[in-house]
Amino acid sequence: MGEPREGATADIKIARWKIDQVALRKLRQAYQVALISLLRKEEVNVSMARLSAVLARLRDFCHSEPSHFWWQETTVFVDGLPHDVVALDADSVAVLRLIEGEIKGFIDAHAQGLDWQATATVMAKLQASLGAGQPLSEVDQIGAQDVPTLLQRLEAQIHTSSQSGGRRLDDMRICLEALQNAAYQTSLYEMGDLCLIFSEVLAVVSADELAQEQTQTDLFDWLERLSTSYNEVS
């Protein structure tokens, strides 16, 4: 078999880049169509499902990048919205519009081969809508000093989980993933392993089970294990 021609690797990269650009532009178009349909109060349930699907595709596209967490949060945000246009408040609609602008910014950055991060204003509005604290889209940059913050956040989420159902369940999964990353990045391997096991436990918990007393007890037991593991090395 002959040697690959010179520049073949570069050609492949360019071809993949072009395919990605086409796919990303189609995702933005799909988001725009769904958003316009929602604003016109047409097929609200279908429009919301399409918005969520686009954001989930962007999350998966960025699976190994820091922006993965941002798209995960936007997906959680949309999934938590009421599928009734009458119940949608103006702030939520404003965030949906801003997300469309972030999709454009992400595509433009990708086209230029640049790193991308959501604008601070949009991140703040999204977090205010989610009712959470520190944006998890920045978790790839956090150090050991942020582990206590994430533990506090997880504790607050567990405290409110019995009333918040599936939305809070998603929040806890995101927070655990961030905590696991922070632990491994700072050589807290035992804690990171505990986060991984806890995530597997959460994966089989349903929204209905969150209201059960035994489930709440189990969640707080896991939180205590994580806290103990951190305190032993801090």
Which terms summarize this structure?
single chain, 234 residues, mainly alpha, Four Helix Bundle (Hemerythrin (Met), subunit A), 2 domains, 8 helices, 72% helix, disordered N terminus
So what's the overall shape?
A: globular
Write down how many β-strands occur, each being a DSSP E stretch of 2 or more residues: 0
Distance separating the two termini: 57 Å
| CATH-derived architecture of the largest domain | Up-down Bundle
Sheet having the most strands: none
Supply the number of structural domains: 2
- Please identify which CATH superfamily of the largest domain we are dealing with: HPT domain
Radius of gyration: 20 Å
What's the CATH topology name of the largest domain?
Answer: Four Helix Bundle (Hemerythrin (Met), subunit A)
DSSP strand content: under 5%
Number of helices, where a helix is a run of at least 4 consecutive DSSP H or I residues: 8
Mean pLDDT: 78
In the CATH hierarchy, what is the class of the largest domain?
Answer: Mainly Alpha
- Uncertain runs are 1-6, 132-145
Oligomer: single chain
| Helix and strand pattern | HHHHHHHH
Structural class of the helix and strand makeup?
Answer: mainly alpha
Give the proportion of residues in helices.
over 70%
Explained architecture:
By secondary structure, the chain is mainly α. The longest helix has 39 residues, at 147-185. It has two domains: 1-133, Four Helix Bundle (Hemerythrin (Met), subunit A) (Up-down Bundle), CATH 1.20.120.160; 142-234, Four Helix Bundle (Hemerythrin (Met), subunit A), CATH 1.20.120. The chain is built from eight helices and no strands. Helix 1 runs antiparallel to helix 4 (90-111), helix 3 (67-79) crosses helix 6 (147-185) and helix 4 packs across helix 5 (120-130). Residues 1-6 and 132-145 have low confidence and may be disordered.
